[in-house]
Amino acid sequence: MAPGEKIKAKIKKNLPVRGPQAPTIKELMRWYCLNTNTHGCRRIVVSRGRLRRLLWILFTLTAVALIFWQCALLVASFYTVSVSIKVHFQKLDFPAVTICNINPYKYSVVRDLLADLEQETRVALKTLYGFPENTSRRRREAESWNSEGPKFLRLVPLMAFSQDETGEVRDFLTGRKRKFSGRIIHKASDAMHVHGSKEVVGFRLCSNDTSHCALYNFSSGINAIQEWYKLHYMNIMAQVPLEKKINMSYSAEELLVTCLFDGVSCDARNFTLFHHPMYGNCYTFNNRENETILSTSMGGSEYGLQVILNINEEEYNPFLVSSSGAKVIVHRQDEYPFIEDVGTEIEPAMATSIGMHLTESFKLSEP
């Protein structure tokens, strides 16, 4: 039976239909009041006595009136709300900009400190890749060991092991194979592995009591030797006084060629020195240590900070860095510049533009 027929049959069953005529309005209202979930309408029909019935009629009409009144208030308040939008330009504090040269120190200045380390690094590269040696006497003397022997390779040995063998490593210094049962840590490589050998290269690090050792291995031998070089490089430079390291790095006058901010010329006096252990002398523009924090009201590269840098690629350390350029990070004045983690690398002989968008959120007070 169709849904419409069911409703008609239910009405005919509950209503006293007189002959062929349809039920009257009074009968329909009585049927609705008896079957609705609205308690007031039902009480009007089933209540005994006129007083009770009048009270229930009054309560029901009052409730219906209150409902319509609340609906009218909601509609009126919805259409009477005014929205005001103001668009205006204001000056914003310009962020701090930290610039670092990828090469931390001038190679001509630190070369004497790193002579022994570089000598052992060349030997390690020859052992791994078999670079041909120059037959000249000067080259043979440069590659010969010093009187004390290879101290860096003994301190942190370079290892190589075949991917087919488990637990057996070969020492770069002695060439002997031995079993290794310590922890093996796989590190990602920046360079592609183009060497034909199946050996995986790494270095071993042990605790002070040499009871716990770990083997850091890389799929690329170049990356392994470079990380091994950086490890000893950081230890050597940590023993150099800070003032001497600042003098060995680039000065602001050497790094900055031209500087413009908001169309006005600026110079090294607008930059604050910040010495980074891995990037040497870095310089921060618009730092909080300055007398006043610069602000700007216009967007675009023409009204921001424009600098031309001289990275002095001739002074780059070939064992430490594999690329040339500078690193830049934009940050707040009260933030530490994590240049190594989130800095943007700028390539040489290229014009690079960095844009920032400021979003601020303000919470209203109660309610």
Topology:
Blueprint: H1 3-14, H2 25-35, H3 39-46, H4 50-80, E1 92-93, E2 96-101, H5 107-110, H6 115-129, H7 137-143, H8 151-155, E3 158-162, E4 168-171, E5 177-179, E6 183-187, E7 199-206, E8 213-218, H9 221-238, H10 242-248, H11 252-255, E9 256-261, E10 264-265, E11 271-276, E12 280-285, E13 295-296, E14 305-309, E15 326-331, H12 339-342, E16 344-346
Parallel strand pairs: 6-8
Antiparallel strand pairs: 1-13, 2-12, 2-15, 3-4, 3-7, 4-5, 7-8, 9-10, 9-14, 11-12, 15-16
Helix pairs in contact: 2-3, 3-4, 6-9
Mean pLDDT: 79
Considering DSSP H and I runs of 4 or more, what fraction of the residues is helical?
A: 25-40%
Here the CATH topology of the largest domain equals Acid-sensing ion channels like fold
Uncertain residue ranges? 132-143, 191-197
Head-to-tail CA distance between termini: 57 Å
Structural class: alpha+beta
CATH class of the largest domain: Mainly Beta
Order of helices and strands: HHHHEEHHHHEEEEEEHHHEEEEEEEHE
> How many β-strand stretches?
16
Count of DSSP-assigned helices: 12
- The domain tally reads 3
What is the CA-based Rg, rounded?
41 Å
Shape: elongated
Largest sheet: 6 strands, mixed
The name of the CATH architecture of the largest domain is Sandwich
Keywords:
Acid-sensing ion channels like fold, elongated, 3 domains, transmembrane helix, single chain, alpha+beta
